[in-house]
Amino acid sequence: MSLRHHPLGLVAALTIVLVCAPSHAIDSETLDDPVLQTRYVAISKELRCLVCQNQSIQDSNADLAKDLRRQVRGMLLAGRSDTEIYAYMTERYGDYVRYRPPWRINTLLLQLFPFIVGLLGVTLLWGTLKKHRSRQSVSTPDEAERDLSLPEDQP
Amino acid sequence: MRYAVPLLVFLAMSVFLALGLGQDPEYVPSPFIGKAVPPFTLESLDDPLQTVSTSDFKGKAFVINVWGSWCPACYDEHPYLLEYAQQGELPIVGLNWKDTREDARNWLARLGDPYVVNAYDPVGDAGINLGVYGAPESFLVSAEGVVLHKHVGPLTPAIWQAEFLSRVSAL
User: Fold this and answer.
1) Residue A66 Cα to chain centre, angstroms
2) Measured between CB atoms, does B167 come within 8 Å of chain A?
3) Using CA atoms, how far apart are residues A57 and A67, in angstroms rounded to an integer?
4) CA distance A86 to A46
5) CA B108/CA B44 separation, integer angstroms
6) What are residue A22's DSSP bridge partners?
7) Contact B106/A at CB under 8 A
8) Is the Cβ–Cβ distance between A9 and A16 less than 8 Å?
9) Whether the Cβ atoms of residue A76 and residue A29 lie closer than 8 Å to each other
10) Contact check, Cβ <8 Å, B26/A53
């Protein structure tokens, strides 16, 4: 009796197929070394895909993103450092390729903008609160007086 | 005075946003301008036994045109390239990007060949090394091998005249 015709044989065969399938799947986008794999994913998330409008090359399925991921993998396997990989990409595509652009004169406004807006907000809030409080402390007696006097004015 | 600060903030933001509207969000300027063209040596599209290298073109300004038979905008650009090739002012070197040899050759046989030579880059690594992110892209390279200009998208007569020919004649 062949393996195929035996009920247990079928189960065994299926089990073997299921167990072996993942290791046979060819995933050219995964690096065998777990450390490199972690770095690969981290770097890919930091690099902007230039044709996909605000997707990282990790998130995008565009051809260019695949090509750039291949470049990153190649450089990681060649033992290049993260800094070298970012430098390679920036040399070719400019600061735009990075989600975290470096501090430069022309990126200063971009980098400082959240803090400027935050500071502006706090200043405005502080000013408004101060004005509000001072108006309250001055006007309350008047208002109270007026409130009290109102019923008396009524005939 | 009470309205001066919000008004100024509004005006400043308007200026920034208006400037932003005028920009093409898909345009990424090339960091190579003013620098040496990144060298490549690739198989010739016509003959796998021959190589095409950036160093082959020293001594005369030339254009590297990145194209593929899969690229609709390259199709739009193609008739103009044939015109410029006929004028003969600047040699056009093709970088056949992420294409198959067969498709690329058929394309040129059918539509005409404006290129002095074509470098064959099926995987696309040489393109990436040039900072290419789409096709067509055209680089103007000086006789000394320095990138003078890059145009993203199809070349038109106006762009050819204003951005390529005028830059070379200014040298």
Assistant:
1) 19
2) no
3) 9
4) 9
5) 14
6) none
7) no
8) no
9) no
10) yes
pLDDT tens digit string along B115-158? 999 999 999 999 999 999 989 999 999 999 999 999 999 999 99
Instruction: Name chain B contacts of A92, Cβ cutoff 8 Å.
Output: 31-32, 38, 128-131
Asked if B51 and B43 touch (Cβ cutoff 8 Å), the reply is yes
Residues 42-61 in B contacting A (C-alpha not used; CB under 8 Å): none
- Helix-, strand-, coil-residue percentages of chain A, each rounded to 5: 75, 5, 25
The ipTM assigned to this model is 0.82
CA–CA gap between residue B29 and residue A92 (Å, rounded): 10
Amino acid, single-letter form, for residue A135: R
Sheet-wide strand order for B41-44: B51-53, B41-44, B117-121, B92-97, B62-67, B137-141, B147-152
Q: Which of A64, A86, A92 to mutate to test the interface with B (most CBs of B within 10 A)?
A: A92
- CA-CA-CA-CA torsion for B48, B50, B51, B52, nearest 10 degrees? -100
What's the whole-model pTM score?
A: 0.75
Instruction: Give residue-wise pLDDT tens across range A108-141.
Output: 888 898 999 999 999 999 999 998 888 766 555 5
Of B92, B96, B81, B140, give the one whose Cα is nearest residue B116: B92
